[in-house]
Amino acid sequence: MEILLPGDDFVIGDSAEVKGDTLYLYKKGDFKDVMYALTYKIFGDDECYFCHRKLRSHETQCNNQAYFSKISMDHLIPQDFGGPTITNNLRPACTACNSRKGNMFEDEFYEFLKVYQEVIRTGNQDLLEKFRAALLAKQEKRRKGDIPSLPAAWLADSSPRSIWVNYRIGEIKGGSYMRMLEDVAQYGYLIKPVTVTANNVLVDGFNANLISTIKDMPALIIPMDNVVYAGYPYGERNL
Ligand SMILES: [Zn+2]
Fold this sequence. Notes:
Elements: E1 10-12, E2 16-19, E3 22-25, H1 31-43, E4 71-75, E5 90-94, H2 95-101, H3 106-122, H4 126-144, E6 161-165, H5 167-173, H6 175-187, E7 190-197, E8 202-205, E9 215-224, E10 227-229
Parallel strand pairs: 3-10, 7-9
Antiparallel strand pairs: 1-2, 2-3, 4-5, 6-9, 7-8
Helix pairs in contact: 3-4
């Protein structure tokens, strides 16, 4: 898949650089910050994607604070359902929309807003309870994999395929590693995808920094065809 990039060349400190159609990453650990910076560049940092309220951008922190809404970043496909931190899945949002949207997908959030307005208009609270019940049922199906959470076009054809995970570090890290094992036992693979560059460097995903050569786990792979990791390949490993 290709991640969304700004049309023009763009330098993000010493972390990354867009040149032509390609994003060159220089620091693996800065991947999330790079995705946020690119998203603000593409979609702007002065308006909520959902309610279109004016946001307090990074440059106007001190002006008219009461007038502007606080800025935050929303994952269109929620992180709880494996929504990756890539520009295609990120949108600038006010903190109010972001927290109300919570675990909802974009279409579910719009539906919620409609129902919410209807409840205010009619005073009929049952509508909200009905919506919540339907949402919970749908989320349960997503968790079981009956409804896919990620667009097929984002995933590698052969996914899930194995990634390598350091078993001993996993034991030390405890909880998150146990969740990985539970996922594999329950679903057959890690339900949170891992994001890799075109030159096959893993930059984001479930316990990305535990990758080693000891134990393999099947994972969903999001291959970013227009992203190249150009930094020193072993410089930022925590092992
Ligand atoms: Zn908003």
